[in-house]
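A favour, since you know our structure tokens better than I do. Would you make up a two-line entry for one protein for me to read? Write everything out right here, beneath this request.
=====
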Amino acid sequence: MLNRVVVTGLGVVSPIGNDLSTFWDSLLAGKSGVGPVTHFDLDSFPTPFTTRIAAEVKNFDPLPFIDKKEVRKMDIFIQYAIAAAKMAIADAKLDLEKEDLDEVGVYIGSGIGGMNTIESNARLLQERGPKRVSPFFIPMLIANMASGQVSIQTGAKGPNSASVTACSSGTHSIGEAFRILQRGEASVMITGGTEATVTPLSFAGFCSAHAMSTRNDDPQRASRPFDKERDGFVMGEGSGILVLETLEHALARGANIIAEMVGYGMTADAHHLTAPAPEGEGARRSMIRAMKDANLEPTEVDYINAHGTSTDLNDKFETMAIKGAFGNHAYKLAVSSTKSMTGHLLGAAGGVEAIVLAKTIQDQVIPATINYEFPDPECDLDYVPNEARRANVRVALSNSLGFGGHNATIVMKAFEEV
């Protein structure tokens, strides 16, 4: 018999807040984290056809979480993950000194890894030669090192891995951590996603692909999922980390249970490098698998945190996928995209949006899709436009859809001790 799995701790570093309360308050207030790029100089990028905006993390200080000497050995995506993980552990009131650390695991995904490290050391190689490349170059850039460093920093010696599935990385990592706990291979998992790719090379690549919004003169209204005037995603950064536990372990230590995780589904589009499968059929199958895994009927789902990237095909096809998975109930669901406020955090998106699921269930309030001004006839569901909404949310679902055709869905519900 599979173990029940519950959420007991949440930690976040984001463009709208570097702690849980600030992040959640900002979401409910409809605050946008998008603004002009400050992380690097855009002077060499042509205008007006290049994106000049992003949802950057502001005023992040790693020193409350990481020793100063260690910070220099870590790319920023690792620093974000450690900070969010330590906040999640504190939120869970999990005293690791009292835990069997063989029973505590880590599973944190990143879509790209240490892009800042790659670019800075490539410049050193070209300008000053190979001897100037950091001896920490490789362990700073590899995407698994967020999981590795969180393990080192916390002493967690249980199952440890990382999903690298583009924008689905965070959700896949949470889903796999859920499976580990269900099977009894650990009692606690620290899990989620992290990303830090607001860099010249990342921007150049996405600009060349014409994937990002160029609403540079109005950045806070640039990310507008499901709106007819959407023109591309806005890149974000940060980390979202959850503490998951077996129900038995959580009850034994008297933990505060935020929500129960009950389902996980994943599929492949087998279609295209970057474009979603026609009519979102891969996302549809992912949602159906997750609901089946949770032993839930479509009519039991109250809210979907959509992938909702503010790109033409994603929003249209995800809407079609929801209709395909839920039938007539699709029109009774609340569907919102918090990327309208946070931007698209790529591999961290699933971690941050899983936190949104848990908080929505805990507080019974659904964050809005802001910047929803011009309805699109092809996107005709209830997207919770512009203002957060009080609602009875017992069951909630989150989608993450990544380049390469990776689809992942998780399901949470209100905890009931039965």
Q: What stands out?
A: The chain has a mean pLDDT of 97. The first strand starts at residue 5 and ends at 13. The chain has two domains: 5-252, 263-413. Residues 227 and 373 are 6 Å apart (CA to CA).
